[in-house]
TrEMBL record:
Pfam families: Mpo1-like (PF06127). Keywords: Membrane, Transmembrane, Transmembrane helix. It comes from the Bacteria. This is DUF962 domain-containing protein. The chain crosses the membrane at residues 22-43, 49-70, 75-92, 104-120, 132-150. It comes from Chryseobacterium viscerum. InterPro entries: Mpo1-like.
Length: 157
């Protein structure tokens, strides 16, 4: 069995309850967005593109590190996640433009609220979050959800 499948199987052990899964489908992408959004607020030069917006060098560095982790598991997942992360960066740019210097409050609020719901989901599940055993599961959550989408569409990762 491939490492990505082993990690998905391990992650799934604490994500079997329907309510917990539902909470994860909402909260995991939002948490991922807040982490990238928070990275975008660290002062650094930005790359800007028409019709897209601007991405900070720090955000690009974070995206590269995450992508390297995903490439080790699955090239297809890594490519799809690059596209997703760049789409998230577009929404981050819009958030930063809309809220200006208060953007950090948006990211922090969403981060805290979504983590509260994540822990509620795990309380319902009756099992501790996977990342408490191994921090790499913080990056497995988003691709675990992507894995469901790829399987439903018949795409092998």
């Amino acid at each position: 069995m491939r490492k990505v499948d082993l990690l998905f199987a391990e992650y799934s052990k604490s994500h079997r309850n329907a309510a917990n899964k539902f909470i994860h489908w909402i909260c995991v992408p939002l948490i991922f967005w807040t982490i990238l959004g928070s990275a975008s607020l660290i002062p650094s030069p930005h790359f800007c593109a028409s019709y897209f917006g601007c991405v900070s060098i720090i955000s690009l560095f974070v995206i590269v590190l995450i992508t390297l982790f995903y490439i080790r598991l699955s090239l297809l997942i890594a490519i799809v996640m690059i596209v997703i992360m760049l789409l998230l960066e577009h929404f981050i740019y819009l958030t930063n433009i809309s809220f200006g210097k208060q953007s950090w409050m948006v990211y922090l609020s969403v981060f805290v609220i979504t983590w509260i719901f994540q822990f509620i989901g795990h309380k319902i599940e009756g099992k501790k979050p996977s990342f408490l055993r191994d921090l790499q599961f913080l990056l497995i959550g988003p691709i675990w959800l992507l894995g469901f989408i790829l399987k439903k569409t018949g795409i092998k990762y």
